[in-house]
Write a structure and sequence with these properties.
270 residues, alpha+beta, six-stranded mixed beta sheet, three-stranded antiparallel beta sheet, 28% helix
Length: 270
């Protein structure tokens, strides 16, 4: 069994993003599919999966649920008041969906959710990390890689994520993407410039070291001990995540620093 797990891991590692996602979807048999990368850690324990499934069972209009903590500035951009610069996206949404205009909504219950309405696609285009109905991926799929010679080194999907989002927009489905008010996972970021390590063309760009202490990068929290929200917004990465043995890369305002690619640290993958 251990050998089988290793073979599967190596196979997925060597595939393009699109190939790996398509293989997972083809093999899956359940109603819901949890897609998970290896550079994200679960940080909350409790009955959150049960509560999340219950919410999705009652809300078929939710396309995907993002599971990870985001920066507080991201939450305010996705869930905050209207901004003057949104007139183009609002107009585009109205022309595309007419009476099915996607207005942001809140889902109450043991595990509250907030949806992004027109501001985000109805599914997590990359697929990770998210919980989505398997039928949704099969309706929209398969993921398709675009011309690799035109791809940006930052984009591990080689255009597949962008293509999936475009396909959702043209699909006629009016799903909304939901965010957890109390997220359960966190990107592993132990780089001072706020960048996750990325494997590209046989090389690793950036820092991705083993945990400094023990098994985990972040402390594990209990769902019941988390506050309900952060001033009406989901709990943010900066406020909730507690690293073990290192500090989060924060700017002078206390916001998590985010960078796409660390080109100063490059190592061969063996």
């Amino acid at each position: 069994m251990e050998g089988l797990k290793w073979v599967q891991h190596k196979w997925f590692r060597d595939q393009t993003h699109a190939s790996a996602m398509n293989e997972i979807v083809s093999r899956a048999t359940g109603k819901y599919l949890l897609l998970w990368p290896d550079d994200v850690q679960f940080v909350v324990k409790g009955d959150w999966m049960l509560h999340l499934i219950e919410s999705l069972e009652h809300c078929p209009w939710i396309g995907s649920v993002g599971l990870n903590f985001l920066r507080r500035k991201t939450y305010r951009r996705l869930l905050g008041p209207l901004r003057p610069d949104e007139i183009v996206t609002i107009t585009s949404e109205a022309l595309r969906r007419k009476l099915n205009f996607r207005i942001p909504r809140h889902v109450d219950g043991p595990l509250p959710l907030a949806t992004c309405g027109w501001r985000w696609p109805g599914v997590v285009g990359s697929g990770i990390p998210s919980l989505t109905r398997l039928s949704n991926w099969r309706d929209l799929g398969p993921w398709k890689t675009r011309d690799a010679t035109q791809s940006n080194i930052v984009d591990s999907s080689l255009g597949a994520e962008e293509d999936m989002i475009e396909r959702f927009q043209n699909s006629g489905f009016h799903w909304q993407q939901a965010l957890m008010m109390k997220p359960v996972a966190a990107d592993i970021i132990n780089d001072t410039i706020g960048c996750k390590a990325k494997m590209r063309h046989g090389k690793r760009h950036g820092i991705y070291t083993a945990p400094r202490e023990g098994t985990f990068y972040y402390e594990i929290m209990r769902e019941a001990s988390l506050p309900d929200d952060d001033g009406g917004y989901p709990l943010s990465f900066e406020k909730s995540i507690r690293p073990i043995g290192f500090d989060l890369p924060l700017d002078d305002r206390g916001d998590l620093i985010k960078s796409s690619l660390n080109s100063s640290v490059i190592a061969e993958i063996t």
